[in-house]
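The freezer alarm interrupted the setup, so I double-checked each line after restarting. Inputs confirmed:
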Amino acid sequence: MSQQESPTKIYHIADLTVEYYMRRLSIRAVNSVNLRIEKGEAFGIVGESGSGKTTLALSLLNLVPKPGRITSGSIIYDGNKDVLKLNGNELRRFRWEEVAMVFQGALNSFNPVVRIGDQMLETIDEHKSLDRQEGLKKISTLLEMVRLDPERTMRSFPHELSGGMKQRTMIAMSLLLDPKVLILDEPTTALDVISQKHILNILADLRKQIGATIILLSHDLAIFTEVVERIAVMYAGKLVEVASMDDLFLRPKHPYTLGLMQATPSVLGDVSKLKPIPGSPPDMFSLPKGCPFNPRCPFTIDTCRKVNPPLEEIPGNRLVACHRWRDVT
Amino acid sequence: MPSVEGCYLSTDYLLETKDLTVRFRSRSAGIFGESVLFNAVESCDLGIRNGEVMSLVGESGCGKTTLGKAAIGLIKPSSGNVLYEHKDVWQMDGKDYSEFRRNAQIIHQDPYASLHPSKKVYAIVSAGIRYHKLIHDEARIRDRVSELLGLVGLVPPEYFKNKYPHQLSGGQRQRVAIARAVSLNPKFIVADEIVTMIDVSLRIDILNLLLDLRKRLASSFLFITHDFGVARYFAAEGRTAVMYLGNIAEIATTDMLIKDPLHPYTKALLSAVPVPDPTLAKQRKMMELRRVDPPDPVHPPPGCKFSDRCPSFMSGKCDKKIPDLLEAKPQHFVACYLYEST
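Predicted 3D structure, all chains:
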């Protein structure tokens, strides 16, 4: 990844910090994140619950809910648009028309008493000047892309669709306004494995068809192997490693990434090699001094307890935030 | 009808379900919808031997939790039997039943909901011991609770005894639930999706703890999960059963089931499981199904419930009657017409 500014970046996030304020306490859900996402790439963000991945994704739309606040940093979209400086009307257009997001648990957010077709038309009417026929045509095309029967789906009420069908409808809906970026937060978590695999296949195809940038968030490393080219690993609000999928899986350089891989049971491969990451997930109210992973890390040395390592570029076009990345194999 | 019990001396079984059916009433869509009866669990034969670990794999809504609850007597079967040490659980006299209750325990999925929010850990873990009057002396109860907390890795026990559940993390809560389940030295434990709500990095820890306890207590386990990888890890030395819409589709040793699955549904599931390895992931292809989306469980297709999605569907056969669970290969049982003659 080139560190030079270039017009191929769809997102350039610099030094982003997001804090949640509660009475006297505050937590840093996102802590000085620097990240560049290329135009048209499929990018994954992996992290356990509470690691800050959803907050990071919400900041990309300037949609962090109260009591959260973006306290520093900038998010430049497509080379020139500062997302954090958009006014109300600009933001309204930016969201969904430029960047669409499928939220976690979104499959329960349909209006239960309105037919799917009408819910989708409503969105088009609100944002675009298409007539009804053109609108319907657009909806059919998108529903076909997510492998649903357009006629039947448009006539259905949400409860008549299965979980996988609802999630696919949601994806079609997010694409109504031809966004350039599609963010999906845990899109397959509540689904059975067959529907999950189906959705991942659809996402991979969609990318080829519409050429959009896809940002996929999940706690499950395994699902990324289906669609993603590059992955960022988050821990305690920090990016700890960013690498191509092959590099990350085959040659992890951060001890946390390595630990996650060794802790994920699979149906293939040797199960006897599995081992847990010791200790417990970080308490965001009182993070340890130095590297936030140091109490659980088998590679910890004195420096790790004192200095929080920055995310630095290492050979092979990848980034890692670890004092001891050279020793991680 | 030869079924699972054909292959072992049936005296081996600690717990058996025989032709077990649990029927629920479900209201069809809409507030004025008619109510419909449907079988959440249908004609299930499952036998768990002394000290055996069995994983039960299935998608959400397939009836695996209902089967687990019926197996420890928390849900009354609509028809069929649950036998514990060859005695029907629902025909037992008071003494036998109390003995069964003590010996059959469950660990629930959600450690945030399964612990009493206004009781301290000490009261939660000691409740069973008091109820079954296993120990009378308060000082010895205290020792026993300390021992149990130590056993599940909540050390120092003195620290955790006086905590309320809300003061503990998800992983710690699940450990309290485990301590409670093993407090009575049960012979049979149902573990229902116990790591689903636990952070990925801690899952193996909880599974290892349970495997370790299993060795100490020599208990049998029915380990319910939707995750094939987790099922494989837990029952590496045991058997795995696959369930689909209320029926058992296939049972075999875990190893055999994963290496050589027979039922088309098991094959489809295994082909869809994501693997955390990019090289392997590229080579894998999901099995083509006639339909990707599962049917409404209240209105399954006639005959084999997988028939409307199965790529090997045989018209006139699969849509007539639910296939029996038969031994297709030694120790390998499958409910599918493809293997009827073998």
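Quick read of the result. Residues 118 and 154 of chain A are 7 Å apart (CA to CA).
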